[in-house]
Amino acid sequence: MSGKDRITCHVLDTTAGRPAKGIRVRLEGPCSPANNSFSSSSSAGAVEAPSSSPPGNKAPPAPIKAFESQTDDDGRVRSWLPYSSETSSGEVPIYTLDDVLGEIKGPSRWTLRFDTASYFGGEHATFFPEATVVFRVEEGGQYHVPLLLSPYSYTTYRGS
């Protein structure tokens, strides 16, 4: 592998006009698009009741995997490590992003969470203490998600 994962991101601080160095970023996925979509209900505003079918009729959702990284001097995240929370049993998860992406069949949803509060100097210094971006991943795809950031706004787009 070229040292760059199939999902990468780049953060630019638009108030300073430079890359946003040192932002903690978490990547979470995969989630099934059908389970997390506003468009999955049959009518606007309708909320479906939980299914009354026996649990054996549906496969349980796959557990979400989490990865973490930090933006480098160029504001980029090129690779990810498995995330291990402070409250976990102390066991380090053993999987790579490439392994997880390789197991996915069909489209899935992933979430990037950017810790903007720490970057801007605390929750009082920004309107968005976390910038969250949810995006769709197709089998075999390569994804780059840039984030343009200021204390009172953020913008994202599909990069190349």
Short description:
The chain has one domain (7-36, 60-156): Transthyretin/hydroxyisourate hydrolase domain (Immunoglobulin-like, Sandwich), CATH 2.60.40.180. It is 8% helix and 34% strand. It has two helices and ten strands; from the N terminus they run ββββββαβαβββ.
Q: How is this structure best described in words?
A:
- It comes from Escovopsis weberi.
- Residues 7-159 form the Transthyretin/hydroxyisourate hydrolase domain.
- Residues 1-89 are annotated as: Disordered.
- The chain is mainly β and 160 residues long.
- The protein has one domain (7-36, 60-156): Transthyretin/hydroxyisourate hydrolase domain (Immunoglobulin-like), CATH 2.60.40.
- It has 2 helices and 10 strands, in the order E-E-E-E-E-E-H-E-H-E-E-E.
- Strands 1, 2, 5, 9 and 10 form a 5-stranded mixed β-sheet that branches. It has a 5-stranded antiparallel β-sheet with strand order 6-4-3-7-8.
- Strand 1 and strand 2 form a beta hairpin.
- The protein is globular.
- Residues 41-54 have low confidence and may be disordered.
